Amino acid sequence: MWSLRRQLFRWQWLGPLIVIAAWVGAHHWALLNSTLLPGFFETLAHLVRLLYTGNILPDFAETMLRMAAGYGIACAIGIPLGMAMGYFSRLYQVFEIPLDFFRSLPVTTLYPLFVLLFGIGHRSKVAMVVAACVFVIVLNAAYGVLQRKVVRTQVAQLFGATRWQLFRDVIFWEALPQIVIGLRIAVSYALIVEIVCEMFMGTQRGLGQRVFEAYNTYSIVELYAIVLLVGFTGYVVNRLFVWAESSLVHWVGK
């Protein structure tokens, strides 16, 4: 068992090592212009410096706060609405086409509308995160309810379960694996849209704003360092969801 774990650990880190080696090799042999591709270790050192001095922390906090606010609102709306749509077939039929339409529409194309409706402050960025996440959550919650095992519902009804008990003790747990999948997809959208909003709309603080400023001032090392931070943040959030998924829906696949 221990040897198997060590083997899996080595394979797990092979991909990142290949990417780092490619970066180091491209910089060392000048496969790309050195002013456009700084060294990996130089970039990493700059990122550590930004974190150690706290220079990037206010921007990081602003981005995470707006992202969390939009994502939380999307969850509060999406999970109950999706479950209701999955349970009541007529409700699903009423909202299926509008939901599919807006889900297929890139939220960044609605950027001018959000600016007109909410201004260029925090509200417009939070609203765009909500719009990017809510449709994914709604549809996955609805699919989770629709794909439930009818036998369990019938058994619960046979034992006299009320509609609330049915939702709380049977349908919710049946739909939970699919809901978690939707939440995991949506959290990636939340980070992407928040960064893009900060770059498009502008803000006093935020990782997207720092990326835009680094690009405009030709601070290439800082640009790559912040991109690394954004990517690592997304990876950590995703791994947290994997851990939560294995804890919440541990029965899946067993």
The CATH topology is what? MetI-like fold
Contiguous low-pLDDT stretches (5 residues minimum) are: none
What is the element string, with H for helices and E for strands?
Answer: HHHHHHHHHH
The CATH class turns out to be Mainly Alpha
Quaternary structure: single chain
Please give the domain count: 1
Q: Report the span from N to C terminus.
A: 20 Å
Integer average pLDDT: 87
As a whole number of angstroms, the C-alpha radius of gyration is: 22 Å
The CATH homologous superfamily is named MetI-like
Structural class: mainly alpha
Helix content: over 70%
Envelope shape: elongated
CATH architecture: Orthogonal Bundle
Count the beta strands: 0
Count helical runs: 10
For the biggest sheet, the summary is:
none
Strand content: under 5%
Which short descriptors sum up this protein?
MetI-like fold; mainly alpha; elongated; 254 residues; 82% helix
Structural summary, described in words:
The protein has ten helices and no strands. The relative contact order is 0.12. About 80% of the residues lie in helices and about 0% in strands. The protein has a single domain, classed as Orthogonal Bundle (MetI-like fold). By secondary structure, the chain is mainly alpha-helical.
Q: What's the short version?
A:
This protein is an all-alpha fold and 254 residues long.
Topology:
Layout: H1 2-28, H2 40-53, H3 57-87, H4 89-104, H5 111-118, H6 122-146, H7 150-158, H8 163-201, H9 207-216, H10 220-248
